[in-house]
Amino acid sequence: MRIATFNLESLDLPPGGEAAFARRATVLRPQLDALRADILCLQEVNGQHVAGRKGRALTALQRLLAETGYDGYHLIASPARAPDPAKGGKGGVADVHNLVILSRRPAQASEALRHRLVPPLAYRSLTGEPEDARDLRLEWDRPLLHATFEMPGGATLHVLNLHLRSPLASPIPGQKLAADRWRSPAGWAEGYFVATLKRSGQALEARLLVEQIFDADAAALIAVCGDLNAGEEETPARILQARVEDSGNPGLAGRALEALELRLPEERRFTVLHGGRRRMLDHILCSPALAARCRSVTADNDRLPDEVAMAEDEPRSNHAPLVAEFDL
What we know:
Elements: E1 2-11, H1 18-35, E2 39-45, E3 48-49, E4 56-57, H2 59-65, E5 74-77, E6 98-103, E7 109-113, E8 121-124, E9 135-138, E10 144-150, E11 156-163, E12 176-178, E13 181-182, H3 185-216, E14 221-227, H4 235-241, H5 244-247, E15 258-259, E16 272-274, E17 277-279, E18 282-286, H6 288-291, E19 294-299, E20 322-326
Parallel strand pairs: 1-2, 11-14
Antiparallel strand pairs: 1-20, 2-6, 3-4, 5-6, 7-10, 8-9, 10-11, 12-13, 14-18, 15-18, 16-17, 19-20
Helix pairs in contact: 3-4
């Protein structure tokens, strides 16, 4: 079985965007097919308006997949933040950055989690203006998507698809002059701190879900996949891994998650290029029982563009897909 993760970087089909979509599809389709994934976790899939209907649908993704080996795969998508009452309380997809899990086999169950295990954070800003606007409620930008699959022999595979918040500073009341311009270094610094809280909070919620899975089955097969916007040694990834060297308790080794990219040669260990710097931001983290069955790991980063130098109409994603093969 092959499990892969790929940030498609805002896959979209806006009005008048047919030519741009065609250029992207020409690049992405063979890249997706080369993964030969049985389960594929995607991030940054935008939703499109559907004529004559409320809400949005994953039109761009469906068109992309129609000419690949994933046509006919089962699809699970994260819902929009606010369900539409006109649709019986069932929300459609969000306008941007949906999470999607594609699978050859149907899922047993699935859930999108946002603040089920970790509540929004009450936070009092230090630099916000006016002062009566300083009481903030910090919420995650996106949910996490959890699906379970029955394996041959009856075992259950848990797949978590994540896209953690980027380290870009979060808005602080009264501290932004424009989208990319801050009023003061203190305001930017606090915004960066808030972004760190949000990203780490998302990681904590995912880790608490992993703990619940381990509570039910100490030998659970778990794969946490996605764009963590953090390297393997940074805080969000360390929260998720819960390594023995961090907990200091060898008795907890069975609950640690292994970062499979560490099995790659160091020169291949990157999924993003930023100003010539190689960064491993996309991960597949596995429970011991699943990691023991991993046979290979590959990062498709040979033709990865440098995101600093990318043209606005660059058809490639600025992320490389990561795929792992397991003996299941």
